[in-house]
Amino acid sequence: METPYASYLRLPVLLELQQPRTPAERPAQWADEHFFITVHQSAEVLASQALVDLNRAAEHAQAGKETQAAVALRRVTALVEILEHHLTLLDHLEPDSFASFRPLLENASGCQSSQFADLFHRIAAADLLGRPADALPAQQPLTTALQALRGAVIRWQTRHLLLVERMIGDQPGTGGTSGLAHLRARIDLPPREGQRCRGEAS
User: For a Cys staple, 115 with which of 47, 62, 108, 159, CB 3.0–4.6 Å?
Assistant: First the structure.
C-alpha cells in the first residue's frame, strides 16, 4: 500500500526513471550505470530548483525587494555548492567502469543539458537581476550574494574539469567536443558565446 509520503513525492514514478542500458546479465556494469544515471538525474533536479530560485531573485530585484532577492540568490548559491560536492559522488566510479558502459551513451553528453546551460549562462550575464551588476553598490548584500554565486559556479567548473580529467583524460567528449581543452576554456565568467556546454563526463 502506497503511503501518503510516497504519493506526495511520486516515488513510484521517480524510482522507475533509472533505466540502465546495460543488460541485467552484467550486474556489476548495470550497477555502475545505474549509479551514473542516478547521480546525473539528481543533479538535474537540483538544477531545476536553482532556476526556480534564480527567477525569484530576479523578480524580487526588479520589484526593488533587494533583501528578498539576496535571500533567493543565497539559496541558488547553496544549490550550486551542493552540485559541486555532488560531483564527488562520481569519484566512486572508476574510469575503467565508466569506460565499460560509456559506448551505451552514444552521443548523449552533459554538454546537452539545457538546464545547466541556462543556469550558468544567466548567472554569468551582466544584467542577471534586470540591471547592470556594476550599477549595484559594492558592499550591498545583493552584490555580495551575486559575487558568491558566481564564485560557486567557477568552483563547480573547476571540480568538473578535474573529474573529467580523471574519468576520460584527453579523450574527446561524447558530445563531440575536444574534451578537456574545451572545458578549460570555459572556466571564465562571463563565458564567451557558444561556450555554454555543461561538460564531457557524460
Answer: 47
